[in-house]
């Protein structure tokens, strides 16, 4: 079952854009946000029911604007925390990790999602299918050299999401690990390397949609475990 209204952060490219397009095709009203206004508007111009909302999720005024937009269009059923910050590229070891850079990673990847969720909770509680999904990573649960900053932020986001699920039993609250994808962020993690063997974001979207349709208990889910059911 499709959602009625969604907010998708980091929707200007990559997985966020692919998900926005898929939700639009299902008849969902999507409030799509991203920092790059020109790219966001160009990417979503032909998508029905998509409201382009350029801005930075670390900005409190912009977060309030997003929720106000959802309120104006009738409510909020789905909140997707897709926006994130990789950190320095090439990825540095923790020995040399700039603390200011880590603060920026945490601001975008952890604090902004919590702050936006706090604002959106009244609308999500009022929905019959209120759902929050935070994009996770295998770096949240595995130890990879160079991924300490990003992985720590995603691990903290996983825990935040898990606690929110306990505190909000009337909602579905999920962490969704999409696996490696061929995105600009992933390319920045591997500068100069060929990442063409990674799957395109569009190929991961069906697993996310299955999560929405089947509405399993709140928890952490991997895309590889959510292969869409075959149709007869």
Short description:
The protein is α/β, with parallel strands linked by helices and 232 residues long.
Q: In which range does the helix fraction lie?
A: 40-55%
The CATH topology: Rossmann fold
Measured on Cα atoms, how large is the radius of gyration?
Answer: 17 Å
Please summarize the sheet with the most strands: 7 strands, parallel
Structural shape: globular
Question: Could you state the order of secondary-structure elements as H and E?
Answer: EHEHEHEHEHEHHE
Q: Tell me the number of helical segments per DSSP (H or I, 4 or more residues long).
A: 7
Overall pLDDT level: 91
CATH class: Alpha Beta
- How many strands in all? 7
Please identify which CATH superfamily we are dealing with. Answer: NAD(P)-binding Rossmann-like Domain
Structural class designation: alpha/beta
- What amount of the residues lies in strands? 5-15%
Strand order of the largest sheet: 3-2-1-4-5-6-7
Termini separation comes to 19 Å
CATH architecture label name: 3-Layer(aba) Sandwich
Number of structural units classed as domains? 1
Low-confidence stretches: none
List the helices and strands and how they pair.
Blueprint lengths: L4 E4 L5 H12 L3 E6 L2 H8 L5 E5 L5 H13 L5 E4 L17 H28 L4 E5 L12 H20 L4 E6 L6 H6 L15 H10 L4 E4 L10
Helix pairs in contact: 3-4, 4-5
List descriptors.
42% helix, alpha/beta, seven-stranded parallel sheet
Describe the structure.
With 232 residues, the chain is an alpha/beta fold. The chain has a single domain (5-225), classed as NAD(P)-binding Rossmann-like Domain (Rossmann fold, 3-Layer(aba) Sandwich), CATH 3.40.50. 42% of the residues lie in helices and 15% in strands. It has helices spanning 14-25, 37-44, 60-72, 99-126, 148-167, 184-189, 205-214, and strands spanning 5-8, 29-34, 50-54, 78-81, 131-135, 172-177, 219-222. It has a seven-stranded parallel β-sheet with strand order 3-2-1-4-5-6-7, with helices on both faces. Helix 4 (99-126) packs parallel to helix 5. The two termini are 19 Å apart.
């Amino acid at each position: 079952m499709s959602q009625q209204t969604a907010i998708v952060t980091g929707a200007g490219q990559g997985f966020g854009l692919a998900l926005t397009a898929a939700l639009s095709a299902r008849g969902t009203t999507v409030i799509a946000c991203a920092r790059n206004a020109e790219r966001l508007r160009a990417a979503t111009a032909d998508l029905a029911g998509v409201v382009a909302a350029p801005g930075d999720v670390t900005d409190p005024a912009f977060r309030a604007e997003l929720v106000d937009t959802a309120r104006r269009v009738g409510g909020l059923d789905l909140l997707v925390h897709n926006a994130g910050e990789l950190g320095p590229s090439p990825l540095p070891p923790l020995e040399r990790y700039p603390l200011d850079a880590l603060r920026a990673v945490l601001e975008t990847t952890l604090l902004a999602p919590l702050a936006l969720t706090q604002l959106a909770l009244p609308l999500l509680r009022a929905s019959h299918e209120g759902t929050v999904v935070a994009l996770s990573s295998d770096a949240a649960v595995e130890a990879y050299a160079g991924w300490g900053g990003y992985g720590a932020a995603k691990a903290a986001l996983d825990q935040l999401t898990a606690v929110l699920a306990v505190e909000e039993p009337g909602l579905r609250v999920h962490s969704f690990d999409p696996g490696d994808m061929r995105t600009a962020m992933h390319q920045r993690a591997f500068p100069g390397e060929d990442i063409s063997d990674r799957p395109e974001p569009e190929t991961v979207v069906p697993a996310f949609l299955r999560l929405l349709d089947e509405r399993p208990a709140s928890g952490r889910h991997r895309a590889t475990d959510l292969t869409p059911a075959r149709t007869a």
